[in-house]
Amino acid sequence: MGHINLPPPRRGPSRPWTLLDIAAFFLFALVLLFLLLVLTPLGDPLAAGSSPSRDTIISALDSSASGGSGQVSVDACPIEDVDYMPCEDPKRSSHFSREMNFYRERHCPVPGETPLCLVPPPKGYRIPVPWPDSLHKIWHDNMPYGKIADRKGHQGWMKQEGSYFIFPGGGTMFPDGAEQYIAKLAQYIPIKSGWIRTALDMGCGVASFGGYMLKENIITMSFAPRDSHKSQIQFALERGIPAFVAMLGTRRLPFSAHSFDLVHCSRCLIPFTAYNGTYLIEVNRLLRPGGYLVISGPPVQWAKQEKEWADLQKLAENLCYELITVDGNTAIWKKPREPLCRQFAEYFCPATNYDDSSEAWYYKLKSCVTQGTLTVEISLNNLPNWPQRLSKATTRIPLMQTGANVFEADTKRWVRRVAYYKNSLGVSLGTTHVRNVMDMNAFYGGFAAALINDPVWVMNVVPATKQLTLDVIYDRGLIGVYHDWCEAFSTYPRTYDLLHVSGINSLIRDSTSGNARCHLVDVLVEMDRILRPEGTVIIRDSHDVINKVTGIAHAIRWTSEVYENEPESNNDEKILVAKKTFWKSH
Q1: What residues have CB less than 8 Å from 494, skipping those under 6 apart?
Q2: At what angle do helices 543-555 and 54-65 cross, to 10 degrees?
Q3: Which of 194, 296, 415, 519 is disulfide-compatible with 385, CB 3.0–4.6 A?
Q4: Of 146, 159, 245, 161, residue with least CA distance to 204
Q5: How far apart, in whole angstroms, are the C-alpha atoms of residue 66 and residue 61?
């Protein structure tokens, strides 16, 4: 076959680069490099500048604790990290799937990747407004974000007045105020009876519902994700209202089963019947038998959501819930003490899919119901009224190895210890200086129970690697969560006035091998992140552990004193009382 000879392509003469071309090329390269460093994790190592490395810090602290001369200080994080949340970091979350809002759940850095630096306060930060004034106003500069005020001010959420944010007490479904709304609910729910003590508010906004439920002696765990309503949980905690960053997505919420006497949703926009009813079944896991479920807003009698509303009513009926009332766009159901209706059996998990319904740390949601025990015994009607239930050992305790006698001894022990903290160690419990308190290793909640007459609320944290006693805490009428202290806690920086931990070294130890799963410095840097400037830390542990903690406290700018334990105690514990200094980033 013959070949066709094509003429060679015409090419113009190559033009030599000019200085302008070279400058444009380098400018483009710099812009590309800047975007890579800002928008990807590649820039994280450079953000620390000339700060000592993680290995250098840990080595120096270990050397100092062993009697060596190693001295080191932990530097401040970059000023743009004033609201840094390691496990709810938008840069990290954006890489995950949107399916079932997976990207809005916890996604923590791998161990050792969390920056060892101290989160600075924002410019103009002041010591927060004390409780109870903080329910109604907070300092604007402590979180200068006006997005919610601009978008929700007409609904009574919040507004700016001078140097304050003001909270009129309203919400999307109760623009005239939470007090009127709660009075409306009280027509159908025995809110003032003492039966109801623990509540869960899903998608809570700035938590005005929970704030005003406190007047009824009902303590509400309010939660919302870190989302487009910037810092809503941060506002709630600044106000002194119990709150927590969480997302109902693909995992169980980190609470024990049958914990809440009341579950509330005010325009929370959770698709309860989606994914085979998975989300309503999770609510059913959390709601105490005999408790109440309130849903205000979509889909209840909502235009263009007739099918969703019908599906919700049908699913609630199949779970044997009694529909108490539909008042406008508010529906109220009562959960049965025990599910006796025939159709409920269709939702039981098969025997091959059985689990402990109180396991909830990174636990995948289910679209079936785990058959529980003692549902009648722990039902709302069978618990003592508040406040008697605080000191009553519940029927869930005998199921544990320790037993009710340990519950009683633990309660008395913490009454003595708290009195010692106040009278001998000068801790400001019971004053306006302390409102938001956390017990990082709560066991039965004895520390929180001993503070019940103080103007505080306590987040009781039960380590997920230890005995799961959170259900006992809720049966007492207290609140709390599961957590692993080798990860960051789901809250904003500067949200607690006092952190308490008994046995801090046990938080990082593997229960089987006894080996450390992370370093004590990781825990203390995280404590510094969530502690307010001039906040207080109380740590109890052995002499050797307290010696290590003292060195770390110095490295993270805390002032501290070490004390002997109470005269009545028979162990060799020491008590470290530290204060976070109020420093500013330059």
Answers
A1: 119, 121, 125, 142, 530, 531, 532, 533
A2: 140
A3: 194
A4: 245
A5: 9
Torsion angle in degrees (nearest 10) through CA of 81, 85, 86, 90: -80
Place of tokens 């250098």: 56
Pairing of strands 574-580, 198-202: unpaired
Q: Using DSSP, state whether 232 is helix, strand or coil.
A: helix
Nearest alpha carbon to residue 250 among 102, 398, 71, 383: 102
The alpha carbon of 71 is separated from its chain's Cα centroid by a whole number of angstroms, namely: 34
Its pTM stands at 0.90
Stretch (H or E) spanning 287: strand 287-296
CB-CB contact of 220 with 213 (8 Å):
yes
Among the listed ranges 39-53, 220-234, 347-361, 483-497, which one has the minimum average pLDDT value?
39-53
Q: pLDDT value at position 517?
A: 94
Q: Strand, coil or helix: what is 500?
A: strand
Q: Are 289 and 379 in contact (CB under 8 A)?
A: yes
Q: Specify the amino acid at residue 32.
A: L
Taking the C-alpha atoms of residue 517 and residue 515, their distance in angstroms, rounded to an integer, is 6
Compute how many other C-beta atoms are within 10 angstroms of the C-beta atom of residue 507.
21
**Range list of H helices, 319-403:** none
- Answer with the residue of higher pLDDT: 46 or 438: 438
Q: Alpha helix locations (H) across 139-201?
A: 147-152, 178-185
**Rounded CA gap, 398 and 374, in Å?**
11
As given in the structure block, the two tokens for residue 446 are: 């004895």
- Which residues contact residue 73 at a Cβ distance below 8 angstroms, ignoring those fewer than 6 apart? 555, 556, 557
pLDDT tens-digit map of 383-415: 999 999 999 998 888 655 556 789 999 999 999
